[in-house]
Amino acid sequence: MKTILKKKGFLVTLVIVLALFCLAFGGNGEPADEAEEEEEERAPFAVMPVNPAPMTGETISVYNWGDYIDSEVIDIFEAETGIRVIYETFETNEDMYAKIAKGGSSYDVIVPSDYMIERMIQEELLQPVNWNNVPNVKNIDPRFTHESYDPEFKYSVPYTWGTMGLLYNTETVLEAPDSWDILLDEEYKMDMFMLNAPRDTTAIALVMSGHDLNSINHDDLADAKNLLIRQKPLVLAYVVDEVKDKMIAGEASVALVWSGDATFCMSESDTLNYVVPKEGSNIFYDSMCIPHNARNVSGAEKFIDFMCRADIAAMNYEYVGYAIPNTAAIELWGAEEYNASPVNNPPQETLNKCQVFKYLGENTKLYDTIWTEIISEF
């Protein structure tokens, strides 16, 4: 009997000690205050509704760049509205355009870039947005509206923006590059990645050759093509989304990337840094649009309005990493920290040297032809 009582007493004491331990350390072996601080840091800007809306049977089809939205954002939209999202991705503007132009596929929301928006407006492949159904457009910084690709601000809702530049490993590139010339440096043979994107990579070759990045001059384009052919033996691979994992893993020293990918890589690796070279580069804008043949325009406008909401845009930025034109979201996320990033907030001197891609009409085929010749060159 005494033995049993002793065991019971020991158990009671153990339970009390454990309870006190949990109170002191937040139940996970960490001091409570620290645990709460970490929880606050991890807390999302938007959360799933406690009582999700019943699914209505309504659907919308969204066509976006790969790895360009937080999947939880889609989950929250579905739970709040009862509208199911059919989500597909593309790798280049040209891939997206081909599907829309052929008419065989119907999407309700697409996310093209500036020059492609300009083209699709001209070809009547987009329809105007009814701003009465997108009240959260008020959160968009006016600096990003009425751009040259949509001067009347009728067809596109800014989603992200950024630059094209160099992502480099500070452990293997000991002197920070300030010029595109590093892409021709034999020291980095088979140690660099280039974008598998005809317009983007050819544009940088044009800049490296001293020409305008929107040039359609045959001699200028011949210079760009010859430069890229000369560079090809130095290139480890032509990539798109996979460049992030590869650079984080240290598979190359230098890569031509879009700034949002650089932001993500730098958040995952302290050895990576980003620069827009002194010769200038491309500044781009990606926007949400409604195709001319959308089947659910009402659902599309609900989705676009939802994506412009401050908490959703802040949450999405946390995942995507590309600079956002949403002032309310920036304030919510933390304007001081956001603006401190030279990737998100490049100095005006840098932006003055950057150009937006223009739609080149039939001359776009010149770039496609050049790219085919470069890729097929041994």
Topology:
Elements: H1 2-25, H2 32-42, E1 59-65, H3 71-81, E2 84-90, H4 93-102, E3 109-110, H5 114-122, E4 126-127, E5 157-169, E6 192-195, H6 198-208, H7 218-231, E7 235-239, H8 243-248, E8 254-258, H9 259-268, E9 272-275, E10 281-288, E11 290-291, H10 297-307, H11 310-320, H12 327-333, H13 335-340, H14 348-351, E12 354-355, H15 364-376
Parallel strand pairs: 1-2, 1-3, 6-7, 6-8, 10-12
Antiparallel strand pairs: 4-11, 5-8, 5-9, 5-10
Helix pairs in contact: 6-7, 7-15, 11-12
What does this structure look like?
With 378 residues, the protein is an alpha/beta fold. The protein has two domains: 163 residues, Periplasmic binding protein-like II (D-Maltodextrin-Binding Protein, domain 2), CATH 3.40.190.10; 145 residues, Periplasmic binding protein-like II (D-Maltodextrin-Binding Protein, domain 2, 3-Layer(aba) Sandwich), CATH 3.40.190. It contains 15 helices and twelve strands. The strands form three sheets. Strands 5, 6, 7, 8, 9, 10 and 12 form a seven-stranded mixed beta sheet that branches. Helix 6 packs across helix 7, helix 7 runs parallel beside helix 15 and helix 11 crosses helix 12. The chain is globular. The N terminus is likely disordered.
